[in-house]
Design a protein that fits this description.
This protein is mainly α. It is built from 13 helices and no strands. The protein has a domain of 199 residues: MetI-like fold (Orthogonal Bundle).
Length: 307
């Protein structure tokens, strides 16, 4: 018989433990490889393309031009306008979505007859396809047959009727309203679920201490919602800053660049202007801005989770 030494036993145990611990990693390795392939490769390729003069007219021929595309972008007034619009839209939409979502969640959590029906239909605007939402907004704002202009004329306010999406003063506001109309119910449902998880004892203790409804909301509800609020902010900063559909389908960036945002600007440079390298440089700038925004938000979330 072959004697098994203690050293050999410990060696076998070590390999068995390593095998057990690494088994889960081997299971997720194919999926991880797929994710990296679908995300990492296009990102790296886009960064490399941004340093070339590659064109969609002849993609096989391109030359290295360094950071000329970035200098050209920063000197382009339309790029600066689109960057400003993207930041304005992201800040305004996310801030208003949080505020209106909190108000709507407070209403939906009330125990009144029929509230379950309103909770059920609250998500309709969010589950509708974006194209359907845009078509509805364009239909009700038509110059001659839109509901808004018809109501204005019936009220004797015909001078206020206009082509709303074709007006520089109101087109950007309508894009913002479409974002709110679609996303506020999603915020409300998320906040309502978090509100329902807050222990009732906290509110009872606050009432005993003499706190009214507003102080209960400020000192009990809001602190218990801060984590979900920041998570929603991180998600929708990314979604809104990257959003292409609302602007492209409603105004295409017009009128006169009044609603131009970075995604539509980059799209036009690549597919209308055929300047793939130039458009890639714009995409890299978008990526950097998004990474900075998400890192800042994540730092706040991490700080709150450790408290």
């Amino acid at each position: 018989m072959i004697a098994v030494t203690p050293q050999r036993n410990s060696s076998l145990s070590l390999w068995q433990n390593l095998g057990r611990r690494s088994f889960a990693y081997w299971l997720i390795f194919p999926v991880l490889l797929l994710i990296l392939g679908l995300n990492l490769y296009p990102t790296i390729q886009g960064i490399l393309t941004s340093f070339t003069n590659q064109s969609l007219i002849d993609p096989s021929h391109s030359g290295y031009i360094g950071i000329d595309n970035y200098f050209k972008l920063l000197q382009d007034p339309v790029f600066r306008v689109s960057l400003g619009h993207s930041l304005e839209l992201t800040f305004a939409a996310v801030l208003l979505q949080v505020i209106l979502g909190l108000i709507m969640a407070h209403l939906l959590i009330q125990k009144v007859p029929g509230i379950h029906f309103f909770r059920s239909v609250a998500m309709i605007t969010w589950v509708l396809p974006i194209i359907a939402s845009v078509v509805m907004f364009r239909f009700i704002t038509l110059p001659n047959y839109g509901l808004i202009n018809i109501v204005l004329k019936e009220l004797g306010l015909a001078p206020l009727a206009r082509n709303w999406f074709g007006d520089e003063k109101y087109a950007f506001l309508l894009v913002l309203i479409m974002h709110l109309w679609r996303n506020v119910p999603f915020y409300a449902i998320a906040f309502m679920a978090a509100m329902q998880a807050i222990p009732a004892d906290l509110y009872e203790a606050a009432r005993i201490d003499g706190a009214g409804d507003w102080r209960q909301f400020w000192f009990v509800t809001l602190p218990n919602l801060r984590y979900i609020i920041l998570v929603m902010v991180v998600l929708h900063v990314t979604f809104t800053f990257n959003n292409f559909d609302f602007v492209f389908l409603s105004t295409g960036g017009g009128p006169v660049n009044a609603t131009e945002v970075l995604p539509t600007y980059i799209y036009k440079q690549a597919w209308n202007g055929y300047a793939l390298g130039y458009a890639s440089a714009g995409g890299v700038i978008m990526l950097v801005i998004l990474v900075v925004l998400v890192l800042v938000c994540n730092k706040f979330i991490k700080g709150l989770s450790e408290q």
